[in-house]
TrEMBL record:
The lineage of its organism: Bacteria, Bacillati, Bacillota, Clostridia, Lachnospirales. It comes from the Bacteria. Keywords: Endonuclease, Hydrolase, Nuclease. GO terms for molecular function: endonuclease activity. This is Restriction endonuclease.
Length: 367
């Protein structure tokens, strides 16, 4: 019953936290418009269940008339298995209509020191456009920065969004774009954020494949998870130091503005251009110029990453005669999110880079 995920929490640990809350105390719900309060009557260690009472004083209800209700072991086990430190979870979405005491459990957890409530942004597909909207209520487990016991604390999650396009939630971790960057001149807009989120998703997926990732030179001003890109493991900042590239005249210079490049010990598994708002042609041109400086490496893939609604446009550009030598693939945003979700949920490790071909759309007409 006591399941611990990597950097997560077990049911027994949840029970210990909840047992530290004074029994009989009245705990308000997170949503201020909900006047209901909840109190703990009994907790049976080590795995529960928990008996609670809840009532709405503004409706004239009183504690002694409230029916005892149970937070089951099954519910707590389901929540514990979903928790990873630093990753927001939507309790309502996780449990759905299966448990009518889910809001009570959410409320009680957030009164314990390591749990906060938060409203991360959410990425939606609206009328064929990807947009960042205001988010729904989530719970986030932050054991390294506990708050005072017995109170509710909101954690402001700037620069972190939840992707609601695919069937599973995918977390794009905190990144910060410079308001003004002398190299790139980018500003922090929805489009530039989504572009950078795709780059970071490619990096995270690459880590699961044991690959290093080069991120375009003009994106070096990005801060990701509180650190500059250059401070992250498996990030390459200079192509000239990579033997498979630096050994060839003009290759490092031709590739320096490419959005992302996966790098193996003796291979270049994939070259990515992310097309959020710019034309697909410019990305294909950069990849074409890069390819011309290199020998034919086995298993090297050229990939255009773009919104799902861009499929027709990407297909048309990839099939232009001047780009036929690339045999480029299309990787829609939804596929990036699906693959990133697998890496986050299943902790994929040690799979080969060929696994990405499962998610690629081969739109090249002569394939």
């Amino acid at each position: 019953m006591s399941v611990i995920t990597e950097n997560g929490i077990s049911v027994a640990e949840m029970i210990n936290l909840l047992s530290s809350l004074p029994k009989g105390a009245e705990y308000p719900y997170i949503n201020a418009s909900t006047r209901t309060v909840v109190t703990i009557e009994e907790i049976i260690p080590p795995y529960g269940p928990i008996t609670i009472r809840r009532w709405d004083p503004t409706k004239g209800e009183i504690k002694k008339d409230a029916e005892p209700q149970s937070i089951s072991m099954a519910m707590m086990n389901r929540v514990a298995n979903a928790i990873t430190s630093g990753t927001p979870i939507n309790i309502d979405r996780l449990l759905g209509a299966s448990y009518n005491t889910r809001s009570a459990l959410e409320t009680l957890l957030c009164h314990t020191p390591p749990f906060y409530y938060s409203y991360p942004g959410r990425i939606e597909l609206i009328h064929g456009k990807t947009k960042i909207k205001s988010g729904h209520k989530h719970v986030i487990y932050l054991p390294e920065t506990p708050h005072e016991k017995g109170i509710l604390c909101e954690k402001k999650l700037e620069h972190l969004e939840i992707n609601e396009i695919p069937s599973k939630n995918v977390v794009y971790n905190a990144l910060e774009l410079p308001a003004h960057t002398s190299i790139s001149g980018k500003v922090d807009t929805d489009e530039s954020r989504i572009h950078s989120q795709m780059q970071m998703a490619i990096y995270e997926i690459g880590c699961s494949f044991y690959l290093k990732t080069f991120i375009a030179q003009n994106d070096t001003g990005i801060r990701y998870k509180g650190k500059m890109l250059s401070e992250h493991e498996n990030i390459v900042t200079k192509l000239s130091i990579i033997p498979t590239i630096g050994a060839f005249d003009g290759a490092a210079d031709a590739g320096k503005l490419i959005d992302a490049i996966w790098l193996g010990d003796k291979s270049i598994p994939a070259v990515f251009e992310v097309e959020q708002s710019t034309g697909v042609t410019s990305g294909l041109t950069r990849m074409s110029n890069f390819k011309k400086t290199l020998p034919e490496y086995r298993g090297m893939r050229y990939i255009i990453v773009a919104p799902d609604e861009y499929r027709e446009k990407v297909t048309r550009e990839i099939n232009k005669p001047e780009f036929s030598h690339l045999h480029a693939f299309y990787l829609p945003y939804s596929a990036v999110s699906e693959l990133l979700g697998l890496c986050q949920e299943r902790k994929l490790k040690g799979i080969t880079d060929a696994f990405i071909e499962t998610f690629l759309d081969d739109v090249y007409a002569n394939s």
